[in-house]
Amino acid sequence: MARLTVLHDDPGPSYATSAPMVLVIAEGADAAAEGVAALELAGCQVRRLVPFADAAADISNYDGLDLILVEAAGAADSLLDLVLARADTLARERSLGIVVTVRPDQIDAAAAQMLGPHAQILCDPTRVERIAAIAGARHHARGVMDDVNRETESVRLRRLNEEVARIAETLARLTRSEEIEPRAGVRDRTNGYRGPDDGPAIEIHAAEIRSVIRSRRMRAQFFADELFADPAWDMLLDLFAAQLERRQVSVSSLCIAAAVPPTTALRWIGTLHEAGLFERQADPADRRRAYIGLSPKGLEGMRNYVGAVKRAGLQLV
């Protein structure tokens, strides 16, 4: 089990430290063990370990925080909703980062509360994925970039460079036994999308898009999945087909359509959401469910692309 170091509520003058302080919300030390181990490897310190019942009552009295880690396994559904809502509010008010780890059946509940640039949702993550998420979340925390009123720009840049180098070294060491999934960004679509070519309007049917999705999935019968992993495009196709069918898609369903591990799919959903291609749609009948759809920008891009391919007499892939 990972060593759990919890600082006293009133640390006094010795509290000053460059290590980011983390509030861990979990149902006991065992449930928090993997998260705490990842925090230690990422150079963070646990400010306090709080059970869900206490976090549901109030977490606003914890000061000096840089990051919130929520280990959702074992949490009651009713408490999970309330805790995530409180953590989301606290993070927005104090500019904190949040990392939430969930089981597959908790994806929709977490996404309904926390799909945004300040939060990272992981599903049954590896230790490498945990550390990568913590490292990313730290850059949303006020303590990582240092207080601009106390340090010069050169000092802050030096500290940031040292931190990036240290995280890279930790990840390199861990990947000797764990494989890191390749990460890629989403291109700026300002110059990527083009309007429809001159010519008659092209009719697009959902069945055409579904057939493309089926043919892409058939590749897994003959080749290793990772050779053709393209979660962004798989999700765009699935949401475009759903739009044509006038059907809503839950976050958990979209993760399945991505054909990659859930944590990878969730990361891509967040990336495409930030890129303005996806939008979250609330379910008025169930506040614990969030739907994902194409934004007007994303829908326009898909219509124009598919139309251009069909006008050129090419096959959509």
TrEMBL record:
Domain (HTH marR-type) spans 245-298
Record keywords:
DNA-binding
Protein name in the entry: Winged helix DNA-binding protein
Return the Gene3D superfamilies for the record. Winged helix-like DNA-binding domain superfamily/Winged helix DNA-binding domain (1.10.10.10)
At the top level, the lineage of the source is: Bacteria
What SUPFAM superfamilies has UniProt attached to this entry? Winged helix' DNA-binding domain
**InterPro entries assigned:** HTH_MarR-typ, WH-like_DNA-bd_sf, WH_DNA-bd_sf
